């Protein structure tokens, strides 16, 4: 375990003493819309034009990731309609695609996440998104809506994080960033990307971040390493390797009641009744994770290609909490492989198909001790669980007359959990929790009415099994009554792009009828457990417009002006949900705001000055199933000013300053839903600042 020091820490700075000998790029910072909204996305195995997609999708570009504070991806990801990312305290992330926050105390649920071809979501369904650092990301591809036919169980969608060094476009970029900010924030990032020759390239990314946090007991300390290598060993074969290590620790201040939140939002959860305070118990999470994977691709001929990825992960997880001290050792191994056949020889009939499988095996040793003021006490539970999750998929896609696209896919998912539980002074319990094999089909259509205007529609089955953390949650029980959530999603959309891509508009509407929705609850001791709601209806509309009002070729004082506006409407209701003698049918689904409106502005001025502004309006959020408590709506504004200049002809230097929560709103960016004692609120920081320097070579 680490100690949260109030002094500035500079570990690994020796790594920054690297000999850089590349010539600085000669391009100016003038931005085109394609840098923020790429014209293609690698959705469903191959790169496709955005107008050809049958899914609702978006690319979060490197440019967008760097537009605000570089220690988090939160603002950039939240600019995507239908996506909501929260940070309860530094390092404690939650991510929801179309409403999956209801079953996510922290982390990710209902959503499958990949690092290039390697599943980041482990065999149990958990995804430690907070261990990734923005310095190692080239871009993020987001596919919204259930897509279990190709990516395994999910009801929200799929994220593909493309690491530096594995993107199609190669570079020789090198950079070193140092920044500091309010509440003890310090960040150091180093990135090296090198195209060694025509066949081999690599990337190395390293970061250190620490913060004292806005609230008491909310410090964070994170060390991150990532390396990627790509070797085209002949004209047909390619090998890729990805390795990642993160050492993350963050304190958890706990939720506050409304009275405590209004009195002093910076306080940690105080002692109450039989429970000590978060400070006394040194409540925190410590996560050391290693991930590695190798991907081999071979193009047998112009039509047939085979891809196989072998991967594994190891996690050492510790969580001293108010009520207990939990430790977990998690090991995962897996494989993903598929054959792809493409035939593009006929101009008016181009088609492709894929056949493949993915499987993961996980081993989890979970122990719960008494928490004696941050130290392990008596061992109360010693559990061993094994999860074997695998699925098989087939997809066929055809493009007819360069206008009409039809694709169909189907997946078969199998999942089983074996467990052995040993409680203090009790006989061991051994058993298995099996889930019914599930077929997951999807059908999608797209029609190009005009060269700039496309219609799309899809129908797909969503299916998501409970994770290990839900079957065996912090109440230390094996919940054999918890079932997968599933349902059918109906979706339609339109997309418009001008020929010069100066203006882009996207609109999607969907209805997802979910059965057995998994919902987080807390027992009388404050430990969480999960239950199935009878049914939920999720109706939503997602709209975005993106326009380059001024482009560099217009020779104005303002070199470039890009605006975007993104609107999310979510009308989610419990259709049939009863707990004991309480009937919540007809209530708004817990944790889901009805409206989210996000706007961004990117402005470039002479002398290489850049201004980026981010605005997020989120409406009120129901905090419990009874809808008797709501978090208030808020407007969050962030701004960043950067100046880039040449340095000694070989380098570029960027100076930047930024402000978060410019309006000084009092809000919670990560509520504890259905919290015991109505401790819902985790206050976000008030107005705060940061600044730094970036050397690019």
TrEMBL record:
Its main location: membrane. Keywords: Cell outer membrane, Ion transport, Iron, Iron transport, Membrane, Receptor, Signal, TonB box, Transmembrane, Transmembrane beta strand, Transport. InterPro entries: Beta-barrel_TonB, Beta-barrel_TonB_sf, Plug_dom, Plug_dom_sf, TonB-dep_rcpt-like. The keyword Transmembrane applies. Residues 52-157 form the TonB-dependent receptor plug domain. Residues 233-662 form the TonB-dependent receptor-like beta-barrel domain. Gene3D superfamilies: TonB-dependent receptor, beta-barrel domain (2.40.170.20), TonB-dependent receptor, plug domain (2.170.130.10). It comes from the Bacteria. It is found in: Cell outer membrane. The keyword Transmembrane applies. Residues 1-24 form the signal peptide. It holds the Pfam family Plug. It is a multi-pass membrane protein. Belongs to the TonB-dependent receptor family. This is TonB-dependent receptor. It comes from Sphingobacterium hotanense. The lineage of its organism: Bacteria, Pseudomonadati, Bacteroidota, Sphingobacteriia, Sphingobacteriales.
């Amino acid at each position: 375990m680490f100690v949260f020091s109030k002094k500035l820490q500079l570990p690994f700075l020796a790594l920054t003493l690297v000999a850089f000998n590349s010539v600085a790029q000669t391009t100016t910072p003038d931005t085109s819309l394609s840098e923020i909204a790429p014209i293609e996305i690698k959705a469903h195995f191959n790169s496709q034009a955005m107008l050809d997609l049958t899914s609702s999708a978006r690319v979060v570009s490197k440019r967008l990731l760097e537009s605000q504070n570089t220690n988090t991806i939160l603002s950039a990801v939240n600019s995507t309609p239908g996506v909501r990312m929260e940070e309860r305290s530094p390092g404690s992330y939650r991510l929801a695609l179309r409403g999956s926050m209801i079953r996510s105390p922290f982390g990710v649920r209902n959503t499958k996440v990949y690092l290039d071809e390697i599943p980041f979501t482990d065999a149990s369904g958990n995804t430690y998104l907070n261990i990734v650092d923005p310095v190692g990301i080239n871009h993020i591809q987001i596919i919204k809506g259930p897509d279990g036919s190709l990516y395994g169980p999910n009801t929200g969608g799929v994220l593909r994080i493309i690491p530096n060094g594995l993107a199609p476009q190669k570079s020789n970029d090198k950079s070193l960033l140092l920044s500091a900010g309010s509440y003890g924030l310090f960040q150091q990032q180093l990135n090296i990307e090198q195209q060694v020759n025509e066949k081999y390239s690599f990337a190395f990314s390293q970061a250190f971040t620490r913060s004292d946090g806005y609230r008491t007991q909310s410090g964070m300390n994170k060390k991150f390493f990532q390396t990627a290598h790509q070797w085209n060993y002949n004209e047909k074969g390619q090998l890729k390797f990805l390795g990642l290590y993160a050492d993350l620790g963050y304190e958890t201040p706990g939720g506050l009641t409304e009275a405590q939140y209004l009195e002093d939002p910076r306080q940690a959860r105080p002692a109450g009744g039989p429970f000590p305070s978060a400070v006394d118990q040194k409540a925190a999470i410590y996560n050391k994770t290693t991930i590695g994977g190798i991907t081999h691709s071979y193009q047998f001929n112009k039509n047939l290609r085979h891809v196989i990825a072998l991967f594994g992960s190891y996690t050492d997880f510790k969580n001293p909490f108010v009520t207990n001290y939990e430790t977990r050792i998690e090991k995962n191994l897996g494989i993903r492989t598929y054959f792809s056949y493409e035939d593009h020889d006929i101009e008016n009939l181009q088609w492709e198909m894929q056949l493949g499988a993915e499987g993961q095996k996980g081993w989890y040793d979970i122990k719960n001790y008494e928490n004696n003021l941050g130290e392990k006490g008596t061992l109360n539970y010693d559990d061993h669980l094994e999860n074997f999750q695998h699925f098989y998929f087939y997809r066929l896609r055809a493009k007819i007359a360069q206008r009409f696209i039809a694709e169909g896919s189907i997946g078969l998912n199998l999942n089983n959990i074996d467990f052995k539980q040993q409680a203090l002074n009790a006989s061991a319990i051994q058993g298995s929790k099996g889930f019914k094999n599930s077929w997951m089909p999807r059908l999608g259509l797209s029609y190009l009415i005009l060269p700039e205007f496309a219609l799309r529609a899809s129908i797909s089955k969503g299916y998501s099994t409970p994770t290990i953390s839900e079957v065996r949650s912090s109440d230390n029980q094996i919940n054999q009554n918890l079932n997968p959530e599933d349902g059918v999603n109906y979706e339609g959309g339109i997309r418009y792009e001008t020929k010069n891509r100066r203006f882009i508009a996207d609109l999607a509407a969907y209805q997802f009828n979910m059965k057995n929705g998994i919902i987080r609850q807390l027992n009388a001791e404050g430990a969480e457990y999960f239950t199935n709601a009878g049914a939920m209806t999720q109706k939503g509309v997602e709209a975005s417009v993106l326009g380059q009002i001024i482009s560099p070729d217009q020779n104005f004082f303002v070199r470039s002006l890009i605006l975007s506006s993104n609107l999310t409407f979510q009308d989610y209701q419990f259709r049939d949900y009863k707990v004991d003698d309480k009937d919540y049918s007809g209530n708004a689904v817990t944790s889901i705001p009805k409206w989210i409106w996000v706007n961004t502005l990117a402005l470039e001025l002479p002398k290489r000055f850049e201004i980026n502004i981010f605005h997020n309006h989120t409406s009120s959020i129901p905090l419990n199933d009874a809808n008797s408590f709501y978090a208030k709506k808020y407007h969050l504004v962030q701004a960043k000013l950067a100046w880039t200049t040449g340095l000694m002809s070989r380098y570029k230097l960027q100076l930047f300053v930024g402000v978060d929560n410019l309006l000084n709103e009092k809000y919670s960016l990560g509520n504890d839903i259905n919290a015991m004692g109505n401790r819902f609120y985790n206050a976000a920081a008030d107005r705060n600042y940061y600044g730094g320097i970036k050397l690019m070579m």
